[in-house]
Write a structure and sequence with these properties.
By secondary structure, this protein is mostly helical. It has helices at residues 8-14, 78-81, 93-102, 109-120, 134-146, 149-159, 164-176, 180-188, 197-206, 210-222, 228-238, 257-265, 290-302, 308-315, 326-342, 345-361, 365-377, 383-394, 399-405, 411-421, 432-442, 448-455, 459-474, 478-490, 494-507.
């Protein structure tokens, strides 16, 4: 995937072009070159952030007053998100977009949730939005890049966007989520859209008009409106029996969702492992094999864009067919779930270490904790199983109960209890990471960049910088951990800071 980063969005805006770009979108509809195209989870249990004012001079900006801005559209209201309605404050669209686009998705689960919430939050548009919807499209593109297809689709629908650029995105989401018939119906019902030849032929065939689809293909090929490779794939899509025994045409680069769907239709599905994470959605449905479904669901669950109960259902769907990798995780998961259902604490104690090791291997500890944290908290476990269950509960929504019930066995557990309670008074950090975390709770000190943004009434950008600072800390620069957690606490995201700190200590995502 190619996304503009750094200062590119600013330059792009000045040139009149889009602030972000996804190179794998299907060319489903024609977009006039002269058109000014406008223009993205789970909620955080936090109180609204207190807005920060500042005395720094700000650029003069204008915005339309004749209606609501598309950039203000969101799925999560401030009362639920914990973010202020004026999240962007005095921030400018291009600079906000640059931070969103360049943000890495390699983060702790809590930070992924926070970033997704920022993308989906209902907040005021930037001061220079002008009703264009530029930031809306950046938010949608970032959701697509993270594999959050359902969230992106919901945001597009909430915005009521009907531009060609927005239709392209909703069309591809429909293809990857198995709703291609609905996408074709929407295309047919929108006369202002100009379908490209491959999309027109695909939809004609999906709607049963095979003769028209074949005629469109032959005419377009004769007129040179499609490439030889496109013609070959479309011909095989329309009548695969004519090409039985022949090798399929080579896959294009990049592969688009429309390409992927047609290769699937001719019985030659392209593996999604090397494709952008959004394509994993195409393999979690019943058409894919069980192993492919599990691998796709693990990828999406790890990214925080799929509910944990999906992977629960897939792991327990049938008996593993072999051993190693996915099969071992499914077997350990099934063994643990059966033990839990039996209510036998000794049996659970035997199964828990194995399944926990498998969840660590796949970096699915937090989804596992969401599913089973409460159940484990209520069992009388001992030894290694009790220590694991305590940590699982701390990673779950039941962390407060875990902290109140547990008697720490050592200095590390005492520190974890203090973090869960938000009170480290008299507690000695167990290691260098603990000391970096403790500093943020005892004497918060954000980075110079984050503090400058906060002073300039640009809270949203400061939070993104804090997330990135913690990511830097995970890779070894522990000062970033202190700075990032400090900023979160200063803007009222104390619960998120505690969750993040617990994940830092328990998940050991260290560079």
């Amino acid at each position: 995937m190619v996304l503009l980063a750094g200062t590119a969005p600013l330059a792009a805006q000045e040139g009149g072009g889009p602030l972000s770009a996804i190179d794998w979108l299907s060319q489903s509809v024609a977009t006039p070159a002269s058109e000014d195209t406008g223009g993205i989870a789970m909620a955080i249990d936090e109180p609204p952030v207190t807005g920060q004012g500042g005395a720094l001079p700000q650029p003069v900006a204008t915005t339309a007053l004749d209606g609501p801005s598309p950039d203000a559209v969101g799925l999560i209201p401030p009362a639920v998100s914990g973010l202020p309605r004026n999240l962007w404050g005095q921030g400018l669209t291009a600079e906000i977009a640059a931070r969103l686009v360049s943000h890495s998705d390699d983060a702790l689960p809590a930070l992924r949730q926070l970033f997704l919430t920022i993308l989906l939050a209902e907040v005021e548009a930037p001061v220079d939005a002008g009703g264009r919807g530029d930031l809306l499209q950046v938010r949608i593109d970032k959701l697509l890049a993270l594999g959050a297809l359902e969230q992106a689709a919901a945001l597009i629908e909430a915005a009521g966007a009907t531009t060609p650029d927005m239709f392209r995105r909703s069309f591809d989401v429909a293809l990857l989520t198995g709703a291609e018939d609905r996408a074709c119906e929407a295309m047919a019902a929108s006369p202002h859209l100009a379908p490209t030849v491959p999309a027109r032929i695909f939809c004609q065939a999906r709607q049963g008009d095979w003769d028209t689809a074949a005629l469109t293909l032959h005419t377009s090929e004769a007129l040179g409106e499609i490439t030889a490779n496109q013609a070959a794939l479309l011909a095989r899509f329309l009548d695969p029996d004519l090409f039985e025994g022949e090798a399929p045409p080579p896959a294009p680069s990049p592969v688009t969702p429309l390409d992927w769907k047609m290769y699937e239709a001719i019985g030659e599905p392209l593996p999604t492992e090397g494709l952008p994470v959004a394509f994993s959605y195409a393999e979690i449905g019943p058409k894919a094999g069980w192993k492919a479904q599990i691998e796709a669901a693990e990828r999406l669950t790890r990214g925080g864009t799929l509910p944990p109960n999906v992977i629960l259902g897939l792991y327990t769907e049938r008996n593993p067919a072999a051993s190693g990798g996915v099969w071992d995780r499914a077997a350990a998961f099934q063994k643990f779930e059966a033990a839990l259902a039996s209510g036998d604490a000794a049996r659970v104690g035997q199964a828990l270490p194995e399944v926990w090791a498998k969840m660590q291997e796949a970096e699915l500890e937090v989804p596992f904790a969401v599913l089973f944290g409460k159940a484990l908290l209520d069992l009388p476990l001992s030894g290694e199983a009790a220590a694991i269950a305590f940590r699982v509960a701390l990673l779950s929504p039941y962390r407060d109960a875990a902290a109140s019930r547990h008697s720490p066995a050592d200095a590390e557990e005492a520190f974890l209890v203090g973090l869960a309670r938000g009170d480290l008074t008299g507690i000695v950090p167990p290691d260098s990471l603990g000391r970096a975390i403790a500093a943020a709770f005892r004497a918060p000190a954000p980075s110079v960049e984050a503090q400058t943004l906060l002073d300039g009434n640009r809270t949203g950008e400061a939070i993104i910088v804090a997330i990135d600072n913690i990511g830097r800390g995970v890779q070894g620069d522990l000062r970033g951990v202190t700075e990032g957690l400090s900023l979160m606490r200063m803007v009222g995201l104390d619960g998120m800071a505690r969750r993040t700190a617990l994940e830092l200590m328990i998940l050991e995502r260290r560079g």
